[in-house]
Design a protein that fits this description.
It is a single chain. This protein is mostly helical. It folds into three domains: 5-109 and 208-275 and 385-414, 3-Layer(aba) Sandwich (Rossmann fold), CATH 3.40.50.620; 111-205; 303-382, Tyrosyl-Transfer RNA Synthetase. It is 56% helix and 5% strand. Strands 3-2-1-4 form a four-stranded parallel β-sheet.
Length: 419
């Protein structure tokens, strides 16, 4: 690792969309191609991170390869000797270092992580909704069966218990456990003739709770100075710096401490966190979690269908075209997509449409751009040689195992696992 290391993760699974492409893929590929001469570029597939929330595990292996192909289609030069692409799970040192670091991290540190708290809050709300739904189903199905009556009585007592617990300000985790208790109590087979939640649905996982520690291991194994992160990941990067400094103070210089967030933004540019909005609800970012998919342009969409989504995009009733994400988020989102796909500045695109009093021409232009983009991108993707991608993965993984194991060996000796 004679050159400074830039490290970032490539999404391991899920359907990628236009927001991913314009906000993450394209900037990441441009950065890698420009910086590969003076830096070692580590682009890893975080396949272990990918199932901290539920996924289809039968598709994960191929999805990891397919998403590397997406980066190649975006323009990544995988032939460069300083560009390394590897799968996280193929480097066992990631997992072992995370386990070691766990013993030097407090539970409170993890509980303060904003992303985890948001996931917990979301899960609690879902549990509340489920408990309410379950009670309604019980009451609809109540009959002379004593077991059913007993279950309804348990639900009533449970509700009282929850109210008391809330007054005592139980932690969200304990509250969630209380909610799941009643679900398990009521899973008595088919006597209710209703569908109840599977025991397999465990809520937020320990993997999600521990996510920042594995992320720290991902970074520290390679001495990465630069890690491009969006606003939602800055807290995790600061945690990585904290645990690196803590370990260095206790055991000597084990790790390179990544540069602070301010320096990261200066190096990569603050616009690294660019977000494309949902076409139907422009007050939120474009996301695969959209239930209908009508506001999301997936890279796998048929170009004609994607164009229809643009034509159905939410705008407003102001009848003027202006760049204002607060008052006109839908129009501003279309202008941003227009600018990014055309290569023009946002100001130039806004001026081009200045004075228009309806949005049909803007939508038509953006729809045509999206259609052309998808036709071109999908042709490039189909031309990517999967065999060459796998060869690059295997070569990079051999080199990354060598580098990671050097760092891991230092840590193992420091904590007393090796002589």
């Amino acid at each position: 690792m004679s050159k400074p290391v830039i490290l970032t993760g490539l999404r391991a699974n899920n359907d990628l969309h236009l927001g991913n492409y314009l906000g993450a893929l394209l900037p990441m590929v441009d950065m890698a191609n420009k910086q590969a001469g003076e830096h070692q570029i580590n682009l890893f597939v975080p396949d272990l991170h990918s199932f901290t929330t539920p996924i289809d595990h039968s598709k994960l292996y191929q999805q990891s390869i397919d998403n590397v192909k997406v980066f190649v289609a975006t323009g990544l030069h995988i032939g460069h000797e300083n560009v390394h692409i590897y799968r996280q799970s193929f480097i066992p040192a990631h997992s072992e270092l995370a386990i070691i670091l766990n013993s030097f991290v407090g539970v409170g540190e993890m509980e303060r992580m904003t992303q985890y708290k948001e996931k917990i809050a979301s899960s609690v709300e879902k549990e509340r909704e489920f408990a309410k739904h379950l009670e309604e189903l019980f009451r609809k199905n109540i009959n002379e069966n004593n077991e059913v009556n007993d279950a309804v009585e348990r639900m009533t007592q449970y509700k009282k218990r929850i109210k008391i617990n809330e007054k005592k300000y139980l932690s969200q985790q304990k509250y969630m456990q209380s909610l799941s208790d009643i679900v398990l109590e009521t899973e008595k087979g088919d006597i209710f003739n209703i569908e109840v939640k599977s025991k397999k649905d465990i809520g937020p996982s320990v993997g999600l709770f521990d996510y920042p520690v594995l992320m720290a291991a991902d970074i520290l194994l390679y001495g990465a100075s630069y890690v491009p992160v969006g606003d939602d990941q800055t807290q995790h990067l600061e945690f990585t710096r904290n645990i690196a400094e803590r370990m260095n103070k206790k055991f000597g210089e084990l790790f390179v401490v990544p540069n602070p967030v301010a320096e990261q933004h200066k190096f990569f540019g603050k616009d690294q966190g660019l977000r494309i909005r949902d076409l139907l609800d422009p007050n939120k970012k474009m996301s695969k979690s959209d239930d209908t998919g009508k506001g999301v342009i997936f890279l796998s969409d048929k170009p004609e269908e994607a164009a229809k989504k643009v034509m159905s995009a939410t705008t407003d009733s102001l009848n003027k075209i202006a760049l204002d994400f607060e008052k006109q988020p839908g129009v501003s989102n279309l202008l941003q997509i227009h600018a990014l796909l055309s290569g023009e500045t946002l100001d130039a695109v806004t001026k081009h449409h200045g004075g228009e009093t309806n949005y049909s021409d803007l939508k038509k232009e953006v729809a045509e751009q999206v259609k052309e983009f998808l036709n071109d991108f999908q042709a490039k993707l189909s031309a990517v040689n999967e065999h060459e991608v796998i060869k690059k993965l295997e070569a990079s993984e051999a080199e990354m195992n060598r580098q990671a194991n050097e760092t891991l060996a230092k840590v193992q000796k420091a904590v007393g696992l090796r002589k």
